[in-house]
Design brief:
With about 210 residues, the chain is mainly α. The protein starts with a helix and ends with a helix. The protein is globular and about 55 Å long. The strands form two sheets. Strands 1-2 form a two-stranded antiparallel ribbon.
Length: about 210
């Protein structure tokens, strides 16, 4: 009888000590993030045709080709960076991509590996800043940011200037690292209560 009691007590003790490892919770993109990815898509639709394709960076590059003070080497570096951004991140080696497919692609990247997605966004905006930081001083002037916006088909100068000043520039310069961290927050942060410079600007119609 005592053996039975001891066995029962042992099993009860063992059941309390041994923990069953729970399955990892699956990461899902929130509706708020998906909304921002749709805005990201629109931001890259430079020719406003509702489809992202290699025609968009060509339009962007053509704007700078028309500027006398942009050197051939600057244009070459710009084209190289733009090709990488579009083929690797935006189009994922497709010739074009619709808004729904873009959002699905971002959702799959985010949900399969959130850390890798964060790094992907960091590479995207770092390369982008390398495109528009024309004098390579690790800061963006108002003229550099406005040229970027106009080249990308965003021609409302007042709203473009509002975007610039929303970064609270010092000496009329936005540090590149501030632009990078702000865009990473825009593309990866799913908490709506946190401030978001890019989201606010795009909501205003930039």
């Amino acid at each position: 009888m005592n053996c039975i009691i001891y066995a029962v007590l042992f099993l009860c003790f063992y059941a309390n000590v041994v923990t069953v490892e729970a399955e990892p919770e699956q990461i899902k993109a929130s509706s708020y993030l998906i909304e921002k990815w749709k805005q990201w898509y629109k931001l890259n639709d430079f020719n406003h045709d509702g489809m992202l394709s290699l025609a968009d960076p060509v339009l962007f590059e053509n704007y700078f080709k028309g500027l006398d003070y942009i050197s051939d080497q600057q244009l070459k570096n710009m084209t190289k960076r733009m090709d990488w951004i579009w083929n690797t991140i935006v189009l994922n080696n497709n010739t074009d991509i619709s808004k729904d497919d873009f959002v699905d692609m971002m959702s799959q990247r985010y949900e399969s590996d959130k850390i890798a997605f964060f790094e992907l966004v960091r590479m995207y905006i770092t390369e982008w800043c390398g495109v528009i930081d024309l004098n390579k001083d690790n800061s963006l002037s108002k003229s550099e940011l406005l040229m970027d916006m106009v080249a990308g088909g965003h021609n409302d100068i007042t709203k473009d200037e509002d975007l610039f000043y929303s970064f609270q520039p010092r000496n009329d310069q936005i540090p590149v690292h501030k632009m990078i961290t702000s865009f990473i927050r825009f593309a990866t942060e799913d908490v709506e209560s946190k401030s978001d410079i890019f989201k606010n600007a795009l909501d205003s119609g930039v």
